[in-house]
Write a structure and sequence with these properties.
- By secondary structure, the protein is an alpha+beta fold.
- It has three domains: 72 residues, Dna Ligase, domain 1 (2-Layer Sandwich); 124 residues, 2-Layer Sandwich (D-amino Acid Aminotransferase, Chain A, domain 1); 150 residues, Succinyl-CoA synthetase domains (Rossmann fold).
- The protein contains twelve helices and 18 strands.
- Strands 7, 8, 9, 10, 11 and 12 form a six-stranded antiparallel β-sheet that branches. The chain has a four-stranded antiparallel β-sheet with strand order 1-6-2-3, covered by helices on one side. It has a four-stranded parallel β-sheet with strand order 14-16-17-18, with helices on both faces.
- The longest helix is centred in the middle third of the chain and has 17 residues.
- The model has no long low-confidence stretch (mean pLDDT 93).
- The structure holds guanosine-5'-diphosphate and manganese (II) ion (MN).
- Manganese (II) ion binds next to loops.
């Protein structure tokens, strides 16, 4: 779950990282009022979940009310690479002596948190990595011990931070690490981390992504999702406690177990189809749960055909078939064809139950490949033989 800059800054402030106070607004009038209250110069900043806002005209300094109005007008509604600006963040403009870069993320390969620091901030960090890799300090952290102040001082020193701000930078790194670990973030990035002429170290920007699966541990962060930009079906799935990820194709996918669902996506793609979603129905064969999952899949109007891929283990295929039959008797499938692949424990019985039930538009399949080919054909409007 990605946070807007101002939300990231709220988390920074909570952990003692220095940021400028400001105001989030959604109208020109509120922007001007906020700017007047904060005092000029102010910076007017587009709040969208994409970087490079400065270059796109989404970050502007205003010296007086007229400029604040002009910038708020030009930035609200601006389309920054597909992200429409609906919220502005107004803060008192900072004077900048240097722009550094700092981030904390999980290095999956090393299975450890990674702190990155550079004195070449303010620009795309990928550019620094490509042209001056030696100017990027990368340091793994023992996740049980956390980032110590001593390590942070070493990172700041090695990275070439100005002598007089090494302690300030180290404090910022320790606080950033705390944001990352205590808020269950997957990324906490500051670009630029500035040094002011008064030699204060401060976060001028914030890019924070929180781990959605850990949100239950942070009820206070649950309101931070950018619901205006969130997929409505994903939001509904989250509310209903279903593992659902929206994708861009037209074939609805449902399986039991995340690994099976992922391989189903692959098999469908290999058969030339485009999955519309990832949905893990988990274990169990409860008709109400199956119904809920099917309803979520069909809420996506792009879906032209659905593939149910069930591998029976502890949950037996005949039980799943019964759940399916009960769910379908209570469902409006809107004429959308379903391919149901049942394999594993009691699969023969399960397929027989399905065949007997003669559910309209339901096509049983035996193997995953067969099921994938059938569903791709059905989504393309081709016949695949008589439904069971
Ligand atoms: P991004 O382009 O989306 O990364 O947005 P940033 O928040 O990083 O802002 C882009 C650039 O605008 C920064 O690198 C700064 O150079 C400049 N900028 C942002 N805020 C201020 C400010 O308060 N004062 C000054 N002088 N420049 C700022
Ligand atoms: Mn930035």
């Amino acid at each position: 779950m990605d946070l807007l800059e101002y939300q990231g800054k709220q988390l920074f402030a909570k952990h003692g990282l220095s940021v400028s106070a400001g105001s989030a607004v959604t109208s020109v009038e509120d922007a001007v009022a906020a700017a007047n209250e904060i005092g000029y110069p102010v910076v007017v900043k587009a709040q969208v979940l994409i970087g490079g806002r400065g270059k796109a005209g989404g970050v502007k300094l205003a010296d007086d009310e007229a400029q604040a109005r002009e910038h708020a007008q030009s930035i609200l509604g601006l389309d920054i690479r597909g992200h429409i600006v609906r919220t502005l963040w107004i803060e008192h403009a900072s004077d900048i002596a240097s722009e550094y870069y700092a981030s904390v993320l999980l290095d999956r390969q090393a299975k450890q948190p990674l702190v990155i620091f550079s004195v070449e901030g303010g620009v795309e960090i990928e550019e620094v990595a490509a042209s001056h890799p030696e100017k990027l300090i990368r340091r793994h952290v023992d996740s049980l011990a956390g980032l110590s102040r001593r390590e942070a001082i070493e990172i700041a020193t090695e990275g070439g931070a100005d002598e007089d701000v090494i302690e300030g930078v180290a404090d910022a790194l320790v606080a950033l690490y705390e944001v990352w670990s205590e808020e269950d973030a997957t990324l906490a990035e500051i670009n630029p981390l500035i040094v002011t002429p008064a030699r204060e170290v401060k976060a001028l920007d914030a890019k924070v992504s929180l781990d959605g699966n850990a949100l239950y541990r942070h009820p206070e962060n649950q309101g931070l999702s950018d619901s205006a930009n969130e997929d409505p079906i994903e939001r509904r799935a989250k509310e209903e406690g279903v593992q659902y990820v929206a994708l861009e194709g037209d074939i609805g996918i449902l399986g039991n177990g995340a690994g099976l669902v992922m391989s189903t996506l692959d098999v469908v793609a290999q058969a030339g189809g485009r999955p519309a979603n990832f949905l893990d129905a988990g274990g169990g064969s409860d008709a109400a749960k199956i119904k809920q999952a099917v309803e979520l899949i069909l809420a996506n109007e792009s879906v032209k055909a659905v593939l149910f891929n069930i591998f029976g283990g502890i949950t037996r295929c005949d039980e799943v078939a019964k759940g399916l039959i009960a769910a379908f008797s209570d469902l409006d499938t809107q004429g959308i064809p379903f391919v149901v692949r049942l394999d594993g424990t009691n699969d023969v019985q399960g397929r027989e139950l399905l065949a007997q039930a003669k559910l309209p538009g339901v096509h049983p399949a035996k193997t995953m490949n067969e099921a994938a080919e059938m569903v791709v054909a059905l989504a393309a409007g081709k016949p695949v033989g008589a439904p069971a």
